[in-house]
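Researcher: I'm preparing a figure for a lab meeting and need a structural model of a single chain. I don't have an experimental structure, so a prediction will have to do for now. The sequence is pasted below. Please return the structure as tokens so I can convert it later.
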Amino acid sequence: MTHPVRLLSGALVAVGLLVLSVDRAAAQTEYLVGISVNQSTGVITVEPEILQVTRGDRIRFVGVGLTSWTVTFPEETPFGNRVITGVAEGGPLQRLVPILPDAEYQSYKYDVSVTVGENTWTVDPEIVVGPPGEAPPTR
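Model: Understood. Here is the structure written out token by token.
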């Protein structure tokens, strides 16, 4: 039996990208978080800047036009690792990571660092984990 997949695409901001797809069989959602940098200004774009998810959802971090990026959770993390780096697999640097099934319902601030040549830029977006169908808590 084939289950329908719903695809909702967000606005392209700089070269950041938000895509949401729902796998109804697994009741999990996969989110794309686009990471890019304007090398002239040093402004990093992480789209979305605040992402609301629930346990079991998956996030695919994608570096757009980048040679490297790092996501670091300085405190608690909803993932199995505190540090996530981009992996080039014949395309953009990307990494798919699941939200842990026992992740606390809370806000998780994290750092995204992008290095191009001798320059490194950092920004601190947020992932909010909350119960399914409810507004997630914020800090």
